[in-house]
Structures are given as structure tokens and as C-alpha cells.
């Protein structure tokens, strides 16, 4: 047998190596092609599945819609504040639904409401033609005895200039006609007890609900016994033209002022910062946002300002004095008579209502600061009026109050 040449063995080995590499390359190609085919098939099935599911969703929702399109191509009924299924709801991201909630009813907790109301756009310019509005916020236990007077006050006024909000006791429904400016204006409320922090809670709740309307610029707190002593154009111009808010805040050195201060508020609130003032305020939007955004100082009042300390008389005057005094005129635009003494102001009934009495509230000969000038118009509203005062007030509204 002839021996195999060394060169032949080497060639044979190289040949086998070449075939092995070729086999490896072919194997990779087969796996790659198989992967592509499998991916295409899978993708096709997935697309068919989701397409069928989407078609099923659309079909089911179309079947659920109860309206019938007319030849005029009218839009389907819209649900306020996007509280219903997507197919029956207006665009939840529309500028209209964001700037002006159409329905005051909501299920927000107070902390959720305050957070939502505290949102402030960083961009100065508005993407719409903004007309400043005055928010009239009524804090009431139930009926509004002066309702007819207020309806006359708002009568024939441009609805783009004002809004109305009512905080009544839970379960109470205000009985008004559908064309009344008070119709549908009750906000979700909670129980309020006089002299407790729940009264201040209700004030902040009114502010927060009113702040949801981005066109509201001025916010005035009123009670069921309040009346306007000037007509709407005068009130609107007075408030929207003012560079200050109107919150009474003063240092009362007696037991009815400083005597209500608690040292447990130290070091956050010092005695020299403690203030007292009327509950009935009027504030600018900027200040309203500051008020409902505060948690730290309000919690101190909730913990330590308890009868005979009354948060509604001390929280706002103290908070504004501490941080926002330059924004405040330091007086109220609501006239109240405390000359009788006691825990409540004087109550005026039918026998007290005369032309001279109302004129004395409108202009009693004293002056007050307004935009760095002096004016004789110091009070736009007045309280406290009994239900029996309504008839004579209506008789005087056109001649004295000019509405």
C-alpha cells in the first residue's frame, strides 16, 4: 500500500473545514428566514385580532348611543365635565371644558378640589378673549330671603361678567326658576357649624369652586342676610378696577383679639402677627389662589383656634397680614353694624328700612382709600337684614340703589 502524501492530507482537511463553515452559514440563513416568516405570520394574526377588537368596540359603543343624527348633522348630546363614557362625552381636553366647567356637581374631596383650583398657568397670555368676571359666593344655611332683590340686581346684566355660587347645608336644594342666575349654582357642600373651623372650610370651598372658572377675577363672600346697596355696573367697575383686595385686618389688643391667640402656634405665628377682621371679604384671583393653596398655617388654625377663638375672624386677616399685606386695602366692602355689642351684629327688619337709612350706608360722609385715592364709596354691600326687610328694599331698589 502506498503511503498518502502529506500534502494530500492537508488538502483533505481544508476541504472538510470549508464544508463545515458552509453548513454553519446555511443553518444561520435558515433560522433567519424562518424567524422572518414566523414574525410576518404572527404580526398578521395580531393585526387581525386588534382590528376585530376595535371594530367590536366601535360597534358596541355605536349601539349604545341613544341619539339619532339628523340631516342637519347636529352633534350628539354632550355630557358635562366628561363624567360619562368616552363615546358619549365631549372632548375632555377641549379648552372650553378646562376653562369653564359647565356642571358645578363633582365628587372631589376638599384636598383634591384645592389642588385642582391652585393650578396657575405660567404663560401670561390667554388663548381666548378673557373678560374678567366677579364671583358672588353665598354662604347660607338654607333659603335666600333676599333672593328677589339679588335677582333684580343681576337682571339684564351680561352673564359674561359674573358668576354665582351657593354653599348651603347638605341635602338642601335651592328652589328657583330655571331662568334665575341662582339656578344650578349650588356647589357640593358639607355641614357647617357657627364658630368652628367648618365655617372657614366652607369659605375656602366656595373660593376653590369659583377658581375653576378661569375668567373669575374677583371673589366676594356674602351671606343670606346680605344686600347690594349699589347697582351691578357700579359694583363690577369698583371691584375689577381695584388694585387691592378688601379684607379687614387689624390688631385687637383685648381678650377678643390677642386674647384668642394660642402660644401653641409658635414659632410659625407670633403674637404680634395675630389679626382679627370681618368674615365677609372680597379678594383678587391671585390672593384667592394663595389662600386655598395654604396648608401649613391653616392646619395651625384647625388645631389651635377653637372657641372662644373663631377661625373665620382670624385666619384670613392673620395670613394676609403675614404674607400679602401689600395686596390688601385692609378694609371690608360689606357694611355691618356692631354698635349693639354681643357676638352678633344688629339685625334690621321692615320697620328699619327707609331711604335715609340706605343712603347712610351708601355714603355716611366718611372717606376711605381706593387705589391710593380717597372716595366716599366705601361699602358695596350690607348686612344683617331680616326676611321682613325684603318688601321695603324692593320698593327702594330702583330709586335709591338704582337697580
UniProtKB/TrEMBL annotation:
Main location per the UniProt record: membrane
Topology of the protein relative to the lipid bilayer: Single-pass type II membrane protein
The subcellular localization recorded is: Membrane
Transmembrane segments in this chain: where?
Answer: 20-41
Q: Which InterPro entries match?
A: BC10-like, Glyco_trans_14
Give the GO cellular component terms, alphabetically: membrane
| Keyword Magnesium annotated | no
**GO MF term list:** glycosyltransferase activity
What keywords is this UniProt entry annotated with? Glycoprotein, Glycosyltransferase, Membrane, Transferase, Transmembrane, Transmembrane helix
Instruction: Report the protein name in the record.
Output: Branch domain-containing protein
Amino acid at each position: 500500500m502506498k503511503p498518502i502524501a502529506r500534502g494530500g492530507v492537508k488538502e483533505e482537511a481544508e476541504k472538510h473545514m470549508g464544508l463545515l463553515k458552509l453548513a454553519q452559514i446555511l443553518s444561520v440563513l435558515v433560522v433567519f428566514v424562518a424567524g422572518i416568516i414566523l414574525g410576518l405570520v404572527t404580526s398578521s394574526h395580531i393585526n387581525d385580532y386588534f382590528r376585530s377588537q376595535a371594530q367590536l368596540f366601535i360597534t358596541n359603543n355605536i349601539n349604545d348611543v341613544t341619539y339619532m343624527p339628523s340631516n342637519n348633522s347636529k352633534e350628539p348630546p354632550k355630557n358635562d365635565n366628561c363624567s360619562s363614557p368616552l363615546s358619549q362625552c365631549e372632548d375632555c381636553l377641549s379648552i372650553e371644558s378646562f376653562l369653564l366647567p359647565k356642571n358645578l356637581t363633582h365628587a372631589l374631596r376638599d384636598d383634591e378640589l384645592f389642588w385642582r383650583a391652585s393650578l396657575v398657568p405660567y404663560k401670561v397670555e390667554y388663548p381666548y378673549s378673557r373678560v374678567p368676571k366677579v364671583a358672588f359666593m353665598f354662604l347660607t344655611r338654607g333659603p335666600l330671603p333676599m333672593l328677589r332683590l339679588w335677582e333684580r340686581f343681576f337682571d339684564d346684566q351680561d352673564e359674561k361678567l359674573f358668576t354665582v355660587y351657593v354653599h348651603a347645608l347638605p341635602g338642601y336644594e335651592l328652589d328657583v326658576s330655571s331662568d334665575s342666575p341662582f339656578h344650578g349654582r349650588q356647589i357640593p357642600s358639607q355641614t357647617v357649624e357657627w364658630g368652628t373651623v367648618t365655617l372657614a372650610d366652607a369659605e375656602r370651598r366656595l373660593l376653590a369652586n369659583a377658581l375653576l372658572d378661569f375668567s373669575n377675577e374677583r371673589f366676594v363672600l356674602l351671606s343670606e342676610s346680605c344686600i347690594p346697596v349699589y347697582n351691578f355696573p357700579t359694583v363690577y367697575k369698583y371691584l375689577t378696577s381695584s388694585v387691592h383686595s378688601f379684607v379687614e385686618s387689624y390688631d385687637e389688643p383685648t381678650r377678643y383679639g390677642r386674647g384668642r391667640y394660642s402660644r401653641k402656634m409658635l414659632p410659625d405665628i407670633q403674637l404680634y402677627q395675630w389679626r382679627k377682621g370681618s368674615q365677609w371679604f372680597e379678594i383678587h384671583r391671585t390672593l384667592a389662589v394663595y389662600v386655598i393653596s395654604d396648608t401649613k398655617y391653616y392646619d395651625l388654625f384647625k388645631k389651635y383656634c377653637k372657641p372662644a377663638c373663631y377661625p373665620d375672624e382670624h385666619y384670613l386677616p392673620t395670613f394676609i397680614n403675614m404674607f400679602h399685606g401689600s395686596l390688601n386695602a385692609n378694609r371690608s366692602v360689606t357694611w355691618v353694624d356692631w354698635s349693639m355689642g354681643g357676638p352678633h351684629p344688629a339685625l334690621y327688619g321692615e320697620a328699619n328700612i327707609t331711604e335715609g337709612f340706605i343712603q347712610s350706608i351708601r355714603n355716611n360722609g366718611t372717606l376711605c382709600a381706593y387705589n391710593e385715592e380717597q372716595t366716599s364709596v366705601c361699602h358695596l354691600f350690607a348686612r344683617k337684614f331680616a326676611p321682613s326687610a325684603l318688601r321695603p328694599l324692593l320698593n327702594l331698589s330702583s330709586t335709591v340703589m338704582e337697580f
